[in-house]
Design brief:
24 helices; two-stranded antiparallel sheet; about 65% helix
Length: about 575
Amino acid sequence: MPDAPSGAGRSIRALSTAAAADSVRWQMALLIAVCGLLFLTGTGSLPLIDQEEARCAQIVREMIRSGNWLMPHLLGEPYFDKPAPFFWLAATGEMLTGNAALGGRLIAALAAALAVLTTYAFGRRTFGAAAGLIAGLVLATSVQFWYMARWYRMDMPFAAAMWGAVAWFWLCEHPTADAARTPRWKAWCGFYLFCGLAVLFKGPAGLGLPVLIIGGYFLLSRQSRRIAEFFDVRGITVFALVVAPWYVAVSIQEPSYAYEFLFMQNVMRFGSGTFGHTWPGILFVPILLLGLIPWTIYLAPAVRRHAPRRWRGGTDQPRTLLLWLAAIVPLVFFMFSKTKIVGYILPCFPPLAVLVGAVIAEWIVSDSDDRLMRWAAYALVTAVSLLWVLAAALEVRFAGVGLGIGVAVAAGLATTALMLQTLARRRRDAFVAWALAGFGVLLTFVATTIGHNGYERLSARSLAELIPATDRVNDDFFMWPRTRYSFVYYVDVPEQGRMHHVDRENVSTVAAGLNGVGGVYVLVSGEQNLRELQARSPGRVEVVGRTGDLWLVSNHAPEASRLAPARGH
């Protein structure tokens, strides 16, 4: 029989466990603080932009006002595109914060923070504490992930839930050395719980993609017999309990829901180009590479070190096989979809962040002079420096020379100098820390300066503010030739029938309104369309304001806003 552990041995083990627990706590606290800074700074003051954010906010407004929380509505009509649960959360956020933009974006930010913590847990369990921390920070500072963490839409909750399903499966399969292995039925219950949440946020892809990822892992790791585990009764029961109540209830209220949502909004979006956004699927690859900036540079080392190299008889790297599948399966799946939106590939970022975190952590602790990693480090310095230059140039373009440009130049120079200094002294951990800090500061700078100007140009909020309250009650409103939901949201006409959506071919309807006796406002997209409207209604088109390519005109000039320039012009 083995000797029982001595008292000293037990004490050492207890101290090691306590030290590890302390490490986890402070690393999680750091990640939460970074997420709060990056994902929430300034989100409450930014306007809702077209089309997605303003559409979601309008749906939430109608949900709150009508009291119908079961079936989402947009402009009084049933909205079949997405399930209701995300709108419930956004409505809750709005009621808690008193701010529609902050309330909706808060849900995306919280989901993004959970995805970052999940990435940290996956990386820590698989590659070590340093790799987990770096992976979480890499994910939080990747450009596309950062942007969508601040975006009022359901894409981030969907991606976080889907990543949760994959990560839960892996963490249950690979417990820590001092923990018992999780029973497989519990692993599948957790897997199906996360899949159910993903389905509630966006639809059937929330189940299909995780099943394809884990199923592919079973096949390629020579565990094909385990595919039968997908039919675990307890796991399927959990999925049904999560998903069925709302889907059944809404189908009873709206009998056409199953057809409109499951077939039209999912099957037809995948297989038909009638919904637009039909660009070539291969473009998702450069979009993914650009979205991972500035960490795209480390994908080459990740492929070299962690791509499985042996397939016959089973892969030699099962831990990285799952990560590559989690990144590649959603990418390839949506490449074949006829309808393509940039946010579709958001689930690819967490597994790539783990792989990038792993190669960076290995480089930090290694004494060898890895030429590829050395060149990647210099490329990272160049990339961060150029991005600061770009930020400074955009600040000059939008706001002119002022305090902002001084901050950008000083921060950019300091970041570059510190990264080069630590790299020259072979202080790799400090180099990575300065790279993360410098780029995090850059993202915060963009969010509070350039981003604010950009958001104003993508929203009609500033134009809506030019319309006096009396005109909102009495006048008619047209949007031509495009519907802008931010205009609908911020004007907030008491009677929906006075907000008219007019396509390009029916410009005569807009001209007739301007030439009539009643007060009319028209939101015109594009200067050429403005000229056409002025030609059709001579002397009846008074320019009230402009932002970006949007022009607000009226057949009477409101005294309070006569020729007032809108923000973002």
